[in-house]
Amino acid sequence: MSEVPEFGKKRKRVEEADSATDKDEKANSSINVLDTTNVAVSEDGKISAEEANRAPSQDSKKEPFVTAEDDRSKLGKEYCDTTEKGEVGASENPRLENRKRTRDSEPDSEHVPAKKTHTEAVAAHYNKLEEVGLEQRSMSRIFYLRNFNNWIKSVLIGEFLDKVRQRKQNITVLDLGCGKGGDLLKWRKGRISKLVCTDIAEISVQQCKQRYMDMRNRGRSNDRIFSAEFITADSTKELLSKKYSDRNMCFDICSCQFVYHYSFETYEQADMMLKNACERLCHGGYFIGTTPDSYELVKRLEASQTDSFGNEVYTVKFQKKGEYPLFGCKYDFNLEGVVNVPEFLVYFPLLVEMARKYGMKLVYRKTFREFYEEKIKNEEHKMLLKQMQALEQYPADEHSKLVSNTKDDYEYAEGCKNDEKMKLPLGTLSKSEWEATSIYLIFAFEKQL
Ligand SMILES: C[S@@+](CC[C@H](N)C(=O)[O-])C[C@H]1O[C@@H](n2cnc3c(N)ncnc32)[C@H](O)[C@@H]1O
Q1: What does pTM read for this prediction?
Q2: Cα(207) to centroid of ligand 1, in Å?
Q3: pLDDT tens digit string along 365-384?
Q4: Which residues are S-adenosyl-L-methionine-binding (predicted)?
């Protein structure tokens, strides 16, 4: 068999391993085993591209919580109906107004000392996150999960850069919620010309800038590297266009990776982030990203006996089961024991409606699982998966150790081991990691106007 990435106690440096995301993810274990040579994916559970790209209205039929109290898809439409001035007409509808106000979005009473807002808490959380060295990261329980998420981002970014490059060479990108610069290498590899990095967490932005400078300095003198600017701002509350060095800045791509869900606390915040993502996109430009799939979250919550669910890798805790307001539907996300960060449910059909205000049309919506199943058929993507060590070798060899000690985590891989068609070793994600990553979906909108 062809070369298998080196796995083990000291997992080797991965291409872009230093760009692992801060946040990562479940799945039907029936697809999570790959033969590292053939990368064979079992047939069951495949979802057609047509369905993956289903329209929001069709989409909502699949979502159990749509059928609950009212038709949320319709509500979303109502919520986004704009007045002639372009203002949202929700306040004219008391029912919607009620839904809009949630405990989280109500102003504090005068007598109550001001609490840290959720956005402040998010910024503080990310600012506190230390940059972990490769050595330490390679020992992480979610090493493969992070690499897998990173692979997803790489393929997504590469795909849309290719689309843009078909019509122009000088590509400008907005990395909205750039964090510590986890995607810088992807932008370099994508040979873009200009990058604007922005995040609410000041320390993250500084680290992102430093990483960029280091990348520049490391490069050879004739290496062409994109120019960049860095902006610390709360994109749910501040208008980014006022902060660009060039007032006329336009982007070919806005990339928003694992970020947009922080904005769904209120309509105003979600709208502002959307505005920041889309208003400066060129005609034919793309707003691409990754965010938790509200359908998956609610499905898992409803299946749970309590108001939370998860496993040893991640937990999600909602405030209440059965009530899912369109905005401010808060849940705490905990990954690998790292402090809870408040996130908000993004009802996707609503986002699709809201985006129309900015001339954006949904062109792409796939769960990570669907995306993976589709992209793995491509040899280049398959190679990248290996290079990035996005899957764990199963069974482990004598020099290595599996990331999970739980047998159950490799139940499916174990089953596949005896399949004659599968060449050993297999590539897999432990069930717990797969359960965490399969919460997410990928989206892409295209600017029409
Ligand atoms: C999970 S991290 C993802 C970082 C990066 N996009 C990546 O994929 O590696 C989420 C990022 O969103 C940022 N963020 C959260 N709320 C934000 C807001 N209101 N405005 C700007 N950035 C925000 C956080 O500070 C954090 O860096």
Answers
A1: 0.79
A2: 13
A3: 999 999 999 999 999 999 99
A4: 153, 177, 199, 234, 257, 262
